[in-house]
């Protein structure tokens, strides 16, 4: 995973560092309807407050979401851990031609999956 920091001007505008990094994710409407609008995607950039996800179709601004981020281990062959998953909730705050910007709620859960669980 390669991280590239944004310019100081961009950091000052947002008030928090945002990194250009591709993180595998599942983004889904948080409406209790199961797999409604379940999108497997990747992030374009990410910060502590949110992320921009590349999506083929836009979800409306204000849509409540469940987000699952998949963090892969640094050295998979020597580790029983196959992935670390971060479960978050958030909402769509902006739409662009190639995806959606999501603001994360502060509460989240982290899980580790190992080879026996997959």
Quick recap of the structure?
The chain has 118 residues and is mainly beta. 6% of the residues lie in helices and 53% in strands.
List the SSEs and their pairings.
Blueprint: H1 8-14, E1 18-19, E2 24-29, E3 39-47, E4 50-54, E5 64-71, E6 81-96, E7 99-114
Antiparallel strand pairs: 1-3, 2-3, 2-5, 3-4, 4-7, 5-6, 6-7
Description:
The structure is a single chain. With 118 residues, the chain is mainly beta. It has one domain: predicted glycosyltransferase like domains (Thrombin, subunit H, Beta Barrel), CATH 2.40.10. The chain contains one helix and seven strands. A six-stranded antiparallel barrel has the order 2-3-4-7-6-5. β3 and β4 form a beta hairpin. The longest helix has 7 residues. The chain is globular, with a radius of gyration of 15 Å. The N terminus is likely disordered.
Question: Can you give keywords for this protein?
Answer:
Thrombin, subunit H; mainly beta; disordered N terminus; 1 helix; 118 residues; 6-stranded antiparallel beta barrel; 7 strands
Number of domains: 1
What is the CATH C-level name? Mainly Beta
Counting helices, strands and paired strands, the structural category is mainly beta
DSSP helix count? 1
Shape: globular
- What is the fold-level CATH name, i.e. the topology? Thrombin, subunit H
N-to-C SSE string, H for helix and E for strand: HEEEEEEE
The amount of helix comes to: under 10%
Annotated CATH architecture: Beta Barrel
**Biggest beta-sheet profile:** 6 strands, antiparallel, barrel
CA(first)-CA(last) distance: 23 Å
Question: Which parts are unreliable, with pLDDT below 50 for 5 consecutive residues or more?
Answer: 1-12
Report strand order across the widest sheet: 2-3-4-7-6-5
Per DSSP, what share of the residues sits in E-state strands of 2 or more residues?
over 45%
Over the alpha carbons, how many angstroms does the gyration radius reach? 15 Å
The CATH H-level superfamily is predicted glycosyltransferase like domains
Classify the oligomer.
single chain
What is the arithmetic mean of pLDDT? Answer: 81
The number of strands is 7
